[in-house]
Each structure stands twice: as structure tokens, then as C-alpha cells.
Amino acid sequence: xxxxxxGVSGVPAGRIPAPYAAPGRRAVQVTLVAAGGFYLFxxxxxxxxxxxxxxxxxVALGGLSRIPGTGRQRAVLVLRLIPVGWLLxxxxxxxxxxxxxAVVGMLVVGFALAxxxxxxxxxxxxxxxxxxxxxxxxxxxxDPGQLGDRLLGTTTGMALLVxxxxxxxxxxxxxxxxxRAAHAAAVAARCTALLAAPPYTLSRAEIRTAxxxxxxxxxxxVPEADRPAxxxxxxxxxxxxxxxxxxxxxxxxxxxxMSGGGVRPLTTPDGDVRPxxxxxxxxxxxxxxxxxxxxxxxxxxxxxxxxxxxxxxxxRELAAVRAVLSARSAAHPGEGETPAPDVLxxxxxxxxxxxxxxxxxxxxxxxxxGRRASVTGPPERxxxxxxxxxxxxxxxxRGHAGRRSVFFQNAVRIALALTAARLVAxxxxxxxxxxxxxxxxxxxxxxxxxTWSTIRSALAGTLAGAxxxxxxxxxxxxxxxxxxxxxPLWMLFAFTVGPVKGVGWAQGLFTVLVAxxxxxxxxxxxxxxEVRLLDVLVGSAIGAVFGLLAWPRGAHDELRYAAAELxxxxxxxxVATSASVALEGPLRRAGxxxxxxxxxxxxxxxxxxxxxxxxxxxxxxxPTPFGGRGRGPVLPAVDWQAALMAGHHTLWxxxxxxxxxxxxxxxxxxxxxxxxxxVAGRMLLVSAALDPGGDxxxxxxxxxxxxxxxxxxxxxGAPRLYYATVSWLDSLMADLSRIARGGEELGPDGDGExxxxxxxxxxxxxxxxxxAATTGNGPDGTGDTAGDPRGGRAGPGPVPPD
Length: 802
Known about the structure:
The chain crosses the membrane at residues 48-65, 77-94, 100-118, 406-425, 455-475, 482-498, 504-521, 533-551. The protein has helices at 18-44, 48-64, 71-95, 99-115, 121-135, 147-167, 177-195, 204-215, 233-256, 285-307, 312-329, 341-369, 389-400, 406-427, 433-443, 448-476, 480-501, 503-518, 527-549, 556-582, 586-589, 600-620, 640-657, 669-690, 720-741, and strands at 266-267, 273-274.
């Protein structure tokens, strides 16, 4: 057992280079299971077929697959996949007897397994291993009579792997996303309570803590296995909780900068907000009541996520007191004494905080209790709350069943490539055609550039491995005992070094490995190395052809398209809402909204938000055939979640401003309309940078100021609605500024030295965060229509489409 972190089998961590520690532990597990099952059946029970399937079942799900999570999490998944393995072996065995049925089966099963990645990172990680379990019985010997031994070996290999994952080298379990969200909600509760009591501001340390808590909810800081990307109600709601909590935490420092409402905050030339040096004035009783209610709801939300207690009472309390403040903010200018402009501005900012807290509480209750949740948020925001699991899965699958879905693209690409490899192997009777199909599976990538680079390395490694194999077979000849001794040692070496050194080393080492296996199953000759090289060459050529013909550019562009479309829709709503609240006339005097919250523009933006969220979820769990990531051009330092926040805030703020009773803005109407046009223009500017059209010049995403110049103006006699609208527009500018800053959060001094500077684009799960690149654009992407950004658009995401 591991005695020190990073060590293997009791070896101190300091004696093993850090990059080899985790692969070394994995290699020990796979070697013990694969070699143990192989020797048990090959030499103990004299059942070579069962031996082969036991070994390859362990290699498939332990070595080829990249299932995220801890050992126990992987063990649970592999245990659930045992019946799937049985089905694949049975179907592969019976369809292999004829070439045409084997080819059709490879097309259908290959597509289905690759497309199963729509279920999230874990199904995506297991898919390559399941492909191998189907490929193995699809090749000679075509003997259904061996089915019993095949199932026995497969079951033994997978069962031993479950035990190894669960018992060997236990790993520390990282805090789950619910714990992160609960911590962030508790931080929000503490900060809000401080804002409701003297001196009504947050210290630099408290602001930094809030920024750090929000940053920990970003996907690039969350282990892949813990990211809420599944299609179920709880996963969607948990992702929604993180988004709303991050929005709340981003609003509190801005509220603190107002210093209690008595002194206007200072703005730097870059638009950063700094608290004033002057002493603050206390907020009025209603604002304090709202902040106290927000703090109680945030505390209840944290308890709900940790212990399951419903936040219903706190939610209702905040909803009631927020409604009172909202009604006061919408009062006519002539009704009673008009408060000072800074007080009105603070009222508007507090409404923003309350809205984010209400969304957080409703989403957390859904995440904890599913359809039994007590809190019922707005149905347009939580459309998935009452939807059954099969229907949500159907929405996810249907949304990706189109050519713009990267899941669909990857499934088509790999299914066609595997089918072609099986056809070539069957028609030309390619010796060991299984190896050609395996090479197609492991070397095909989602971008042509990466596929070509992978193939070149793989061929060089295979050639070197073939030379070693030929020499070994020539020297050892038929001495099976030598191969039996070398196999576990070489397997341990291959699975430790291969993942670290890259695909060239992996292919070369695996070439020798399969030779050591097959040399114990049949009399070997040096020509086995020649056949292996030929098969890898054929499989590589097939993978390259389909990588070139079928969507050769990867998934990143679709996220750019979805985010750009969201901002374009949001810009339309900003213009329409600003113009609507600026109108004067009979409808305003009657207290009616000119543009109801359910107006078609709102529905279009809601759909765009859904598509962008799905594309973002797809970006986080973008699958590639061998656990790699093959992305196209990546914009540097783009905070994609900030774009989602901008969409949500556009919806929430617009709905609030258009709620009756509404009043006209009087002489301030032109100023508000002009500010709305400027914010919309900046949204379109960022949108064009994210996804430029064919005749639009490409360029970097602009780094916008965090505050809208002119938003702190105080026109004489301005009504409450003016400050509410300006606060909303100013918060949207803060969201837009984060998009280009890559999540760089504002430090306590407003200097930008916050925590959220990852140095790269918002990344998805995989082997590393990707911080590459350029602003180039090309087609291709991910989506969900009526469920998805990629086929009407949208993928598995925080809140996938309806």
C-alpha cells in the first residue's frame, strides 16, 4: 500500500519523479489485474480465450479509458458497466461471423458508444474502453462457441479491476462541487451580514475571500469528475447554483464600494471601483432588512447543500422584503420625499443582490431534493425542475442529434473510421486486423493537425517497437516461460512511461506488449512485428482520412458561436428594455409594462442562454477518442462563464425593470436610452471578437472597463427607475469586462490583482488546462437545439435546453 503521497507500493514519493507517480500507481493496478487474470486462465485453467479477454478487459477500462475521479468513483462506474461489457461481447461475437454484419455492427455500436459521451465526463472517459470490448470479439476466430469463455474472461477482468480501483492506493477525495457551492454561499452570507451592519463595508481580506470562493466555482478549478455536467435535474440545478452564487459574490464587493449609500464610489481610469475614503452613511431600514434576508437565505442555502435542509422559509422572507423594496423603487417621482441619488443607486444594487440570492436558493433546493424541492423558482429559469429523467435525457440526446453537435461529429467520425477499418480487415483478410482497428480508435483525434502529429509519433514509436519485438522474438523463439516473466514487467513499464512520454512511446511500448501476449497464445515468429507495423500503418491511414474529411477543426468554435449569439440577443434586449423604460405615455401612467417579461425577445434570449450553457458544458467535457482533447484555435484568457452570467443578468434585470408598476423616466429618458445603446454596442463588439463573420476583421476580445462611463451621473430629479436601470447596465458592463479578462477578478483595491487569473481560456476536463492561442475562427462546434448548440446548438451543460 502507498505509505507516502506520490509513492507506489510503499516506495517513498521522493524516489519517484512527480510526473510518474500517478501513472505508476495506475500501472500497478492494471498490471496486477491484467497479468493476474491472464495467468489464471492461461496457465492455471488452460483457457486461453478467457485469458485473452480478462487481460484486454482490464487494459480497455484501466489503460485505454480515461475515467475521471478517484479510485472508488471509477470502481463504481466499472461495476455498473459489467452488464454493458457482456452485451458488447455477445453482440460482437454473433455479428462477426459475416463481414457485412460485422461492418454494420461496427457502424451502429461504434456510433452509439462514442455518442454516449453526451452523458458527461465519465461516460465519455469510459467510451474508448467499451469500444475495445466490442472490437475484440469482432475479429477471428469467428466462433460463437467461445462465447462462454469470452464472457468469463471479460467478467473476471472487470471484476478484478473494480477491486483494484477500490482497494489499491486509495486517493484523497476532493471536496465535491456541492461543498464548494456551500462554502461560497456561506462566504456570501458572512459578507452580506457585514454589509448590513456598521461600518457597512467589506475589508480587503473579505473581498479577496469572496473572490476566491467565486473563483473556486469556475470549472477549471473543479476536478473533472465533480463538474455538474449531466442531464439530470440535480446536476443542472447544481450548475445553476454555482452560477447564481458566483453572480452574488461578484455583486457584493460592488455594493461594498458604495460605502453604505452615503458617498459615491471612486472609479479609476480603467473603470475599476475603489471604496471612497470618506466615512459611510448607514443604509435605510428597508435596505438593511433586504441584506439581512439575503444573509439568512445564503446561510440556509449552505445548510441545504451540506445537510439537505430546505431554505423555503428564508426564500419566502427574502422574496417578500425584496418585493417591498422593488415596489418602492418603482414609485412615481412625485410620491413622497425623493431620496438622495446615492441611496437610490444603492437600492438598485441591493435588488441585484437579492435577485442573485433568490436564484441561488431555488437552484440549491433543486440540487439537494430534485423534483421534491420545496422552493419553486420562476418556471422560465428552472424549466427542468418538473421534467422527468428520461425526458431530460431525451432532450440532451435530441439536442445533439445534428451536424453542429461535437458529440455527434465525434461519434460519426470514429464510427466511420472503425467501420472502414473493419471492412478493410474483413475484405482483405488483414492479419491481426484487430490491431488496425485498435490503431484507428487510439490515433484518431478531433482536429486534423493533432491527428497528423499523433500519427507521425505513433508510426515512429511503432517502428521502434517492431524492431525491439522482432529482435526479442528472434532471440527467445518459442520459450514461453521467458515471455511469461517479461509480460508483467513490461506492462508495468509501458503503462508508467507511456502516458508521460506521449503517444510515440505509448505505441512503441504497446507493440512489444501485444507481442509478449500473443507469443504465449500461439507459436511466435519475427513476422509478428511486421504485421503489427502494417496494421498500425493501415489504421493510421484510415484515421487520417476520416479526420480530414469529417469536421477536422474541433469544438472550440461552437462555443465561440454560442457565446457570440448570446451576446447579440442580449444586446437586442438591452436596447429594447432601455427604450421601453424610457417611454412615457398612457401605458406608463396606467402602470403597465410596455414590454412584458414574456415578450418574444426574452424567449429568444432564454434560448440563446440555454444554447450557450450547453456549449459551455460540451466545452468542459469535450470527448476525443483516446482521452485527449484536440481543440481548435483557442481565444486567450476568455472567461466563458462570464458570458453566461451576462445573459442571465440581462434576463433578470430586464424582467425586473419591466415589472408593473412602471413609470417614465422624464427628462432622464434620453440619458438612459443612450447608456443602453452604449452597453449594447459593447456587447456587439465582444460578440464580433468571439465569432467574427465572414467579412468581419478578426481581433482580440476587447478589454473593456468594468464600469460604464457616465453611469455615475446624478441628473437632478432622477426617479428611482433611472438608478435601477443604470445599476443594471453598469452590472452588465462588469460582466463584459470579465469576459476578456479571463475571469481576472478585481482585487480589494480595484487593481485587478484578484485570484482569477488562470492564464488561459476557461478550460474543460482533460489532461491540462488549455491556455493557447489565437483568435482565428472556423466552423465546427457544440450545441443543443431545442436542446443544443451544435445542431441547432447546445451540448451538455449547466442548464441544457428545453
